[in-house]
Design brief:
elongated; 137 residues; mainly alpha; 4% strand; 6 helices; transmembrane; transmembrane helix
Length: 137
Amino acid sequence: MPPSPVTTLAICSRAACRQLCSSLRPSLSRHVPSQRALATSTQKCYQELSPMQKRILVWTKKYPSVDKIPEEVPEAVMSKAVDKFRWKVAVILMVLTVLGSFGMIVSGKRAAARGESMTKRGLEWHEQLRPGSTSRD
């Protein structure tokens, strides 16, 4: 059942009234941050570094050497360095995975050329496990 014109008018007038009231009193309609939130947003958060974090900062080229890193570094700098480090490690692992895959392909082709197969290995292993087998490792 569609809303009656009176109900629609009441809803529209309430919305218009809320919009008018909020424009007249902006301090009440907007969120006012607390003093603590203002203090933390203006201050830089520093953190003490572990030896591994110092190496990450040097490896991501934020600092030239471990000796030149200050005792405390801004949290944003450390966060960006860790993100870059994580990215580099992921790329290195992807490259190693591709190289390992190619290595296994080459190894499998060489084994096939020698006449080796997984089926033959499985049959030999089962032959050794049989109770009447003469050669047992």
